[in-house]
């Protein structure tokens, strides 16, 4: 009997380990995309602030944070109320939260048969169940301009490397 109990623990540990590694390695949002999201959302202003309950560089909401598995900065408990604002106001924790969110909700919103940065921007701003809608004008124009600029820079870089 004690043997089978140990086996159960081992299986549980392995399952948790695999799930954790998967979430850790799946990072659908590129660095460029993260930068353009924060530019459109907050001007990438790192001042700790909440606007109508949406906090930090990426204006994360409590619901998104809970939905993404309550990631915390080191030393915080996932159960404490301040852990949300601490995470949202920490660039790494906030970005990781968005990564988890898109692993869960990533989809092709605009029907171009790719799941890409444009979709993630829409999912984050309008929610996974309304991401087909038009983005608000200001958000969309800053976001798209940033992505275009990044694309151009990447092409220039590739040209100089070749
Ligand atoms: C960043 O945000 C804070 C709080 O909203 C504001 O006081 C500050 O002026 C902003 N900084 C810049 C550079 O826009």
Please outline the helices and strands.
Elements: H1 2-25, H2 31-42, E1 50-51, E2 54-55, H3 62-67, H4 82-88, H5 91-105, H6 117-126, H7 137-161
Antiparallel strand pairs: 1-2
Helix pairs in contact: 2-7
Bound molecules: 2-acetamido-2-deoxy-beta-D-glucopyranose (NAG).
Residues 43, 45, 47, 49 line the site of 2-acetamido-2-deoxy-beta-D-glucopyranose.
Helix/strand order: HHEEHHHHH
Sheet bearing the most strands, described? Answer: 2 strands, antiparallel
Task: Please state the overall shape, judged from the principal axes of the Cα atoms.
Answer: globular
By DSSP, the count of extended strands is 2
- Give the overall pLDDT as a whole number: 88
The number of helices is: 7
Query: Quick one: CATH class?
Result: Mainly Alpha
Signal peptide: 1-23
Catalytic activity: Hydrolysis of (1->4)-beta-linkages between N-acetylmuramic acid and N-acetyl-D-glucosamine residues in a peptidoglycan and between N-acetyl-D-glucosamine residues in chitodextrins
Protein name: lysozyme
Keywords: Antimicrobial, Bacteriolytic enzyme, Disulfide bond, Glycosidase, Hydrolase, Signal
